[in-house]
Amino acid sequence: MAGKIQTGYLVSYDYELLKTSLPTVYGESDEVFIAIDKNRNTWNGGSFSINDSFFEWIKAFDVDKKVVIYEDDFYVPELTTMECEIRERKMLAEKMGIGNWIVQVDCDEYFVDFKKFVSDLRKYDSYLINPEKNPIQICAYWVMLYKYTTNGILYVDKPLKAIFATNFPNYKTGRRIKERQIYTNNIVLHESLSRTEDELRFKLENWGHNIDLDKGFLDKWIVVNENNYKEYKDFYYLQPKRWKSLGYFSTKSIPQIKEIIENEKRLSVSKWYIFTKNFGQWLKYLVKNKKR
Description:
about 290 residues; alpha/beta; Spore Coat Polysaccharide Biosynthesis Protein SpsA, Chain A; 8 helices; globular; Glycosyl transferase family 2
């Protein structure tokens, strides 16, 4: 029998965004696990609070009784923010159960078509047998929502690969296990940076990348808008040149943006590119395994 589709979230200060993300994955998930620090600590030792109405919303939304709330102590002062993140992801994965597809999604990530992503996962169900001996990680593509403007949203105009699922969650950095990657042609809207300035400042201080942040990132983020974004370049928060330019959606509606994503060919990833990347990964790990 095929393993379950177990979807997990790390929920913290941006918990309200789960109200947009959870509906995109709920129907195709067997269970949804929501990890929350029981002391309401961030990975940097900051504090946050969650309104009781949020849990009331989950109870009302969870008509199929799929949601599991998992509270634990996820902050360790002796660890870096990234080490705390990896620790929490592993603890959550243990609750989700080895032998299943471990899908981890952040509150600010919205699948355009999770049903298709699950269909792609199911092509590799054989890897759920002895996963420790055959670890793989499944990729989709972010469309990064960069900043809300007066009339719409700026976004990074090239889809970016991101890891979302694995059969063996031996995480090394964030959701990465440093094993064979399998590319799929799936798009996920990522609202990582499109916050208010205060919300973004708080996130930058408390997330797993806080010590790696490019010093000029926030200054550029503040000044760029829907009228001048073409005058700027190099927008990535770690290595600026990885995000060379921005595009613009003339709407703030996530459902409308999903429709645009599905219709805009320039935001899709070609089948040939997916094939060549997967062939390269297969060949790389075939050679690597023969050397073991």
